[in-house]
Amino acid sequence: FDHHVIQEEDLIPSLVALPDEGQVQSKCPLNLEHLAHPGFKSFPVEQGGGWNPPDCIPRFHSVLVIPYRDRPENLQQFLAFMHPFLQRQNLSYDIFVIEQAPGMAFNRAKLFNIGFREALKATSEAYCFIFHDVDLLPMDRRNIYACTRQPRHMTSHLDKFRYNLPYPQLFGGGIAILKDQFQAVNGFSNRFFGWGGEDDDLSQNRVLASGYQICRFPSDINRYQMLSHRPAPRMADNYRKFKAAGGSDHDGMILSRDGLSDLMYTVLARTREELYTKILVDLSTSM
Ligand code: UD2
Ligand code: MN
């Protein structure tokens, strides 16, 4: 796993911008001084949590997808923090919270697949996706919430781990990936119920196996605060169980059968909340 670290002077050139429609003069500035601007007041967002810069044309649009169940304090803090953070970066964005209805074990990866599907139905301009936990807050304004040319691992240095990377292959927490790349790897696996394994499956068996590289920004930019929460019930052998059940890695079979291509779910409610769009889903429909 040979991830590429983008140098600080290359941050902005590494990002994939919205198509340029010739209105270059009125494009929103995106420079580090601007990001560090001190007297920033946040703007109101649209009902449903979307936002566009009011007086310039955004260079980037990002869809944030947040998997969620029963962490109301985390969600409230996340939204209160993220709206001003993203607005300061002058990008246009949408926030989708995909909530799993009670009953089955939590399935983070499948909720991301659902968020991808639902966001594409709702926003035609979606081309960049940020799949992100509800309990992680970026601490550095240079951490631009837009997609790089290659899939990016964002949340590598957490306060919880004293800003050390627990293992170099880590791809959990928050990632940014282009729509076409996510489609090309058939999304996440739908088969990881319970805690763990889904992030490694995405990086090893999908993203890298499909010939993409994984990149990160420099480590001081990737600092995050992790909000406290009750630990999820661990099923540490999730991944081994998955493999024992026939989920082998490199034959390309699982990848093509398991993911966006066989995604099944039932939407129980779509609600445009004040600060986000909520999609409540039932996962008991087959895979
Ligand atoms: C780690 C990873 C996470 C994921 C997980 C294993 C990092 C920083 N985090 O997080 O990305 O790979 O291990 O699956 O690498 N959630 C709920 N309700 C629940 C359970 C989970 O809303 O009952 C959501 C929520 O967005 C949460 C995320 O799923 O942030 C990950 O779950 P976690 O925070 O319990 O797991 P954690 O911290 O071990
Ligand atoms: Mn967590």
UniProtKB/TrEMBL annotation:
It comes from the Eukaryota. It is found in: Membrane. Belongs to the glycosyltransferase 7 family. This is RRM domain-containing protein.
